[in-house]
Amino acid sequence: MSSMSRRHLMFAATGIAAVAAAPRLVFAQAAAPAPAAAPTGPFTLPPLTYPTNAFEPHIDAKTMEIHHGKHHAAYVANLNNVAKTNSQLGTAKFEDVLGNLNALDDSIKFTVRNNLGGHANHTMFWEIMGPNGGKPEGEVLAAIDRDLGGMEKFQNDFNAAGGRQFGSGWVFVTVSKEGKLAIETRPNQDNPMMDGRRALMGNDVWEHAYYLNYQNRRADYLKAWWNTVNWAKIAERYAAAKAGTLGA
Ligand code: MN3
């Protein structure tokens, strides 16, 4: 990275005047894939708490290996690259950065949006999946019945929303501090935190999440994915949302 673009890499919030109108070339460089040797830094890839074949036949081991070990790892590596010259980024909470992207210098906004969004989304994604995930119970089940029309309608609506998402993106269930649930979709690696909301759970509908096994059959993947959901973890996240402590 040139010293010129390095000078662009600073938070506007530091009080140093942001450089206006960073050239598009800087955006393109910043969005490049991770280098072969991933840099170390404050961001780390959370390890999976289950083996990569835990969800077969619904999600194959190879997809899990590539999705976690390559795609998510690339977001982490890209963040560590940005953090070399923006150390504040490494210690900030997901929600404080993603909820305030306009505070970032233009030269890093695009990279942070995509890669911190991707890191947050995938951290949530691995967390809310698990083998023998059970069924929704208690407060979560009551909220699904109250806000989403019951489990069958919820799953149908969630799958339909994920199927409609054009191109790459996510389908989420958001949760308010009052515990109210809603389905929403987001393009690319955007996250509800960007609008001050929280994701209770979500499914990745990027082709990299399913293409090896399902090719163009996203609807089949969306249906099968429910077999991987860890409802005990979602209950924990629901409680955290109501306590105001739910991050990514
Ligand atoms: Mn993904």
From TrEMBL:
Residues 136-237 form the Manganese/iron superoxide dismutase C-terminal domain. GO terms for molecular function: metal ion binding; superoxide dismutase activity. It holds the Pfam family Sod_Fe_C. PROSITE patterns: SOD_MN (PS00088), TAT (PS51318). It catalyses: 2 superoxide + 2 H(+) = H2O2 + O2. Keywords: Metal-binding, Oxidoreductase, Signal. Residues 43-129 form the Manganese/iron superoxide dismutase N-terminal domain. It is an enzyme of class 1 (oxidoreductase). Residues 1-28 form the signal peptide. Belongs to the iron/manganese superoxide dismutase family. Destroys radicals which are normally produced within the cells and which are toxic to biological systems. This is Superoxide dismutase. It comes from Bradyrhizobium australiense.
